[in-house]
Structures are given as structure tokens and as C-alpha cells.
């Protein structure tokens, strides 16, 4: 199968300079593309001068992660898309284990490697860690990362397992499956659109796997860092979007109400921690969710006909009340 490594870029010239060389060096046989989201820096000039063999896709607007990839992928001929953030350092031999898993089972629609922290390389990174799950209320968590707590990598997740979602920071997905479910939902703009995408794949009976024999290092926050209230806004709103679009209808309204209560508690906690901008971001996320409720409801299709979607009833209770900070104790 032909492989397209597609790196989405927006004003990331410095990141390309730092991280693109490893992708070029360690991705033999793959065609490497940089999909530029209408950058206003010198990203394109840098690519042309330093990486003439890297293909450049010019997106007309900065449509965020979702539209950026939808626009970039629509005319590619390769069988597999490897979506890669521009702040990821790959390692020798990272690619074959991922591709082997796709070759092995046609029902596997997407895979991810272990995502380790570029700054602290013995620890997992927030965005995906060793494969993602969600609880009954749609809160995401990972093997190796529960909320803000990151585990040290001691080889505990070097296996290959079924997961619920693969991170958009480094995801291999079949072209046919990507387009079969309609690609990324552009109303998300950025953050958690990969969870929504994988949920739609799950509802069609497809599999997603984490492949622990492959590893990459993610800087994180290359576009929006964790201190940016806009990231808080997208994470809370888009998590609700994914829940209303994809969860079974039975009990859904009660789940959404429960989410709104718990999100409110999170906002109060942030106020007490003197983070009013992030508390306000949660409030804005809820208003945006109410505004788009009808639109998201109309997008429901094949909602969780493939059985139970969650591995944990409440990751919030397990983490904050029972003090379980590691995946194995969830």
C-alpha cells in the first residue's frame, strides 16, 4: 500500500526546521507532504529551499485542523494517510510496525504509535499517549495519561491493543475509511476531531489500534499550548459535540446534563485556582454547544450500533475521588 505522510502546517517554519528532518530521514518509501494552512510566515520558502523533494499542498484558508486535512487529503492517491503534527520527532523504524498492522487486518481503520514527551522523553505526552478511550460521559483519557497526569514509560504499553481513538498528532488511517465516514467534522475546527472521527469508525464496526513497538516524540502545543483558554474552549465544546453526535440515544440527554454539571464544577475549580480566563472558556464552550445543538443532533448517524463505546463509567470519579492516576488502576 502506498503511504502519504501529511504534515499540517500554519506559520510553523521553526517547527518544520526542527522536526521535518527526522521525518524525511526515517520514512523510506513514503511520500511526504506539507499541507500549508495559508501561512503568513516563510514556511513555504523554507520548504522550497531546503526540502525540494517534499510535496507542498497549498490550502487556501486556515480552516484549522479539521478543514485543513479535509482539503489537503481530497486529491491524494495514496492508500494510507499518515497524519502527523509539525512538532513531532519520529524515530528510526517507526513506520513499519504501523503499516504492518494495517496490512494484517482490513478491519483496522486507524493506528497510532506510542506518543512520548519531546521535553521529557521517558514520559508519555498528553496528546494520545499510548492510545485513547472515553468514559460514559465522553471524557477522554489514555493509556499513559489521565487528565493532566502523565505516566513514565517503562515499557508497560509496548503491546498492540484495540483502543477507542487514535491521536491526530500521529495517526495512520485508510483513505477509503476516512472518506467513508466523511472525514473530519469541520465544525470542530481543532481539538478532539479525531475522537469524533474514530467514534464514527467504531459505529461502523471498524477497529482502531495502538502499536507500542512504534514510538515518536511530540513537543505539544505547537499551535495552541495548554495555557491558552482557546484550547480549553475547544476541548470542552468539542467533547460535547462528539457525545451528542455519536452516543446511543437511550439516556443521552441525562448524560449531557451530567456533563454540563461536571463541566460547571470544573469551571468553579478553575476560578478557585485563579484561572478566570479558562473558567470563562468553559462557559463560552457551553454557550457554543447550545447554539450548535440542533445542528449536531442532525449529524447523528449509526450512533453506537456496535455496542458499548466506553471502558469506564466515570474517569472523573476514578481520578478525582478515588485518586487513581494511572490507567492500570482505572
Structure explained in plain terms:
The protein is α/β, with parallel strands linked by helices and 330 residues long. It folds into two domains: 3-218, Spore Coat Polysaccharide Biosynthesis Protein SpsA, Chain A (Alpha-Beta Complex); 229-329, no CATH class. The protein is built from ten helices and 13 strands. The chain has helices at 13-25, 43-50, 64-73, 95-104, 175-180, 193-203, 229-246, 252-272, 276-298, 315-321, and strands at residues 3-9, 31-37, 55-59, 80-85, 88-90, 108-117, 132-134, 140-142, 145-146, 149-150, 160-163, 170-174, 207-218. The strands form three sheets. Strands 1, 2, 3, 4, 5, 6, 11, 12 and 13 form a nine-stranded mixed β-sheet that branches. Strand 7 and strand 8 form a beta hairpin. Helix 1 (13-25) packs parallel to helix 2 (43-50), helix 7 (229-246) runs antiparallel to helix 8 and helix 8 packs antiparallel against helix 9. The radius of gyration is 19 Å and the shape is globular. The two termini are 38 Å apart. The model has no long low-confidence stretch (mean pLDDT 94).
Runs in which pLDDT lies below 50 for 5 or more consecutive residues are none
Q: How far is it from the N-terminal to the C-terminal residue, by CA?
A: 38 Å
Approximate shape: globular
Sketch the topology as an H/E string, one letter per element.
Answer: EHEHEHEEHEEEEEEEHHEHHHH
Individual helix count: 10
Supply the number of structural domains: 2
Work out the strand percent. Answer: 15-25%
Give the biggest beta sheet. Answer: 9 strands, mixed
User: What would CATH call the architecture of the largest domain?
Assistant: Alpha-Beta Complex
- The structural class is alpha/beta
Task: Indicate the mean pLDDT.
Answer: 94
- Cα gyration radius (Å): 19 Å
CATH first level of the largest domain: Alpha Beta
The helical percent reads 25-40%
Give the CATH topology of the largest domain: Spore Coat Polysaccharide Biosynthesis Protein SpsA, Chain A
Give the CATH H-level superfamily of the largest domain: Spore Coat Polysaccharide Biosynthesis Protein SpsA, Chain A
Q: Tell me the total number of β-strands.
A: 13
